[in-house]
Structure formats: structure tokens, C-alpha cells
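seq:
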Amino acid sequence: MIKKKIVQWLRNTIKQAKAKGVVLGLSGGIDSSVVAVLAKEALGREGVLALIMPCHSSKTDIEDAYLVARKFKIRTKEIDLTNIYDNLVSILPSADRLTTANIRPRLRMIVLYYFARKLNYLVCGTSNKSELMTGYFTKFGDGASDILPIGDLYKTQVKKLAKEIGLPQTIIEKAPTAGLWAGQTDEKEMGITYDQIDDILMRIEKHKRQILPKRQVAKVENMLRNSEHKRQGPLVCKIS
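struct:
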């Protein structure tokens, strides 16, 4: 049901926009893999371009991206951003690890919009509802896109959908990571699991009583509040 709805939504959205297809970043993770497979089903092989954009990326992630592309016959192009990233960092003042790492998704978004303009495609985002609600994305990086096919699915729902469409088990079971630095994982960085986040978010959304420890609930509520600016457009100073 969910799969069919997303596939039809993609077809309708691309047709309405008078675009020829979508371009997306294929990272080797579960979210981008699910989106790539659904986009291919909706738009056909010629309607999808998956960009693999290593930037000090792990070898496993690159291999997993190609694994999905081969299995589902998804058109790919590799653009290595490592040297561009290194050159940019070398001329900037030094900063903390996260500030520097956030350059990577923003460089990738530059490339995605380059190809979108060149091919008359839309940039297809791969963020899920859990990430969008908690602000676990880079503003104007992986948070920038034209369309979000799985933006209304929690991470746990994406995992179920991944099993339904037949993604390789290694990708389904792989620890979610934004690939910001070696050994980085989403859950380790946030200090809470996606299962816990999703349970808390669903209970907030449905106005149900929370059952997890207050400390964890407060953590997620703080993430919601602190990331509100990420879900809004730029604030405009109203003159009239």
C-alpha cells in the first residue's frame, strides 16, 4: 500500500512539474536505497540518475551503493568530491569537526542541483520523517531537495518498506550513518536509537501517553524545539 502510493505520487509529481526525471544521491544507506528503487519503479531506468559522491567515504558505503544499483539496474554516475572538499577546507579557518563535516552534504547538493538543471530533473531528497522532525539533517545539504518521497515515513517504516522491496539484508541491517566522519553513526551521535525516537515521535503526533523514560522523551522534545529553524524558510523582515 505504502509502496504503491509513493510510486504513483512520484509519477504524478514529475508529470505535473513537466520534469524528465529525478536525480538523487545514492549513499549505500537504507533511505537513499529505498528512494532509488521506488523512483526507478515509478519513472523507469531513464528517469532516474543516482549520483554516488564519495568524500572521504567508507569503501563499504560505496560498494553498497553499487550493489543496489546493480541489483535494481539503476543508472549511476560517480563524482568524487574528496579533492574539492580538501581544497576548500584548506583555505577556511579551522573549526570543530561537525562544522567541517557539514561541508560534505552541502557539496553534494551543489552537484545534485547541477545535474537537475542540466537534465531538467527534480532533486529527490532521501530524508525520512524521523530525521525531518528531529532536525537530523544538514540545512541546505541533505535537507535541500525538490521532493521527499519518504518524508512522511518514520525510520522504522522505511526499514519495513526496504524488506518489502527486497533490498539486500546487509543494507537493511547496517547501522544508519550520515557518513560525516569515520565510525560516525546516527544513533551514537544522537545518543538514542531510532526505535526509541520513532516511538516518542508517534506518541507526540497522536497525543498518546509516553511510555519511555522521561529523560529520553525530553531529549526528543528538545531536538524538535531546537531544530524548528531547519523546517522553516528564511525569516523575512516584514515592512508593510
